[in-house]
């Protein structure tokens, strides 16, 4: 029997579907909209897409359950990163920018207590035994979630995949959110799933970002082989 935290830790589609049954259609739909699904972020990036979430009137009897684990809607990688940044920001959504400047607060997406609780849960995903242990970064706490989705095509889904990982570091005192989407990777070598394919990329990218930004480590070293944000002469950094 899995509790809510374990459902995230083990990435149980069945578990999250059962949780979704406790929500009304409107509750799930409105939460996704508040997190930015279905509308452009306002970043100013040319050609930005809004993604899509169907109106409740078009939902079938199983839409809520499948949407709970990521099917039946679409969002950009920037929207995904922005949603995780919202959780890291205690539930307040901030408009992403491509230029330095004062952040523009959009709205409160979820209550602070809920966002903070989800953040604590997401840290278990990157811990040993979670689906994204390969997202770990030596010396830093990491929170995040894996994703594996079949690619949509006319009339259904292909036998090709997208593997995802979105995460936050340091999880204790968040500075950055990064989303990684690997589109149609070669799975013939046995690499399958967001935890095996996308999470290691996140780890390397985030390790370098933390090092370049001189973000102080906030956790004890984890295991050998996890990327470390190491400082080099002149304040630069490289992830190994």
TrEMBL record:
Domain (Penicillin-binding protein transpeptidase): residue spans on this chain: 3-206
Lineage top rank: taxon: Bacteria
MF (Gene Ontology): penicillin binding
Keyword tags: Membrane
Main location: membrane
Cited SUPFAM superfamilies: beta-lactamase/transpeptidase-like
Presence of the UniProt keyword ATP-binding in the record: no
InterPro entries documented for this protein: Beta-lactam/transpept (IPR050515), Beta-lactam/transpept-like (IPR012338), PCN-bd_Tpept (IPR001460)
GO biological process per UniProt: cell wall organization
Segments of this protein annotated with the region Disordered: 221-240
GO cellular component, one term: plasma membrane
Pfam families: Transpeptidase (PF00905)
Compartmental location: Membrane
Name listed for the protein in its UniProt record: Peptidoglycan D,D-transpeptidase FtsI
Species per Swiss-Prot/TrEMBL record: Stenotrophomonas maltophilia (Pseudomonas maltophilia)
């Amino acid at each position: 029997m899995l509790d809510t935290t374990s459902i995230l830790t083990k990435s149980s589609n069945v578990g999250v579907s059962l949780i979704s049954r406790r929500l009304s259609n409107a509750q799930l739909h409105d939460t996704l909209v508040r997190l930015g699904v279905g509308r452009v972020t306002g970043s100013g990036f040319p050609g930005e897409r809004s993604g899509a979430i169907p109106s409740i009137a078009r939902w079938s009897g199983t839409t809520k359950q499948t949407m709970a684990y990521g099917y039946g809607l679409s969002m950009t990688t920037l929207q995904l990163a922005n949603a995780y940044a919202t959780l890291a920001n205690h539930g307040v959504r901030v408009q992403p920018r491509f230029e330095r400047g004062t952040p523009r607060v959009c709205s409160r997406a979820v209550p602070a207590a809920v966002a903070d609780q989800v953040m604590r849960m997401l840290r278990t995903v990157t811990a040993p035994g979670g689906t994204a242990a390969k997202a770990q970064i030596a010396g830093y706490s990491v929170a995040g979630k894996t994703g594996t989705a079949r690619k949509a095509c006319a009339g259904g889904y292909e036998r090709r995949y997208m593997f995802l990982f979105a995460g936050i570091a340091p999880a204790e005192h968040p500075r950055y959110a990064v989303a990684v989407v690997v589109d149609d990777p070669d799975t013939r070598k046995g690499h399958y799933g967001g935890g095996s394919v996308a999470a290691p990329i996140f780890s390397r990218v985030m390790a370098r970002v933390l090092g370049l930004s001189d973000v102080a480590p906030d956790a004890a070293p984890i295991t050998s082989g996890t990327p470390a944000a190491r400082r080099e002469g002149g304040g630069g950094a490289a992830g190994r």
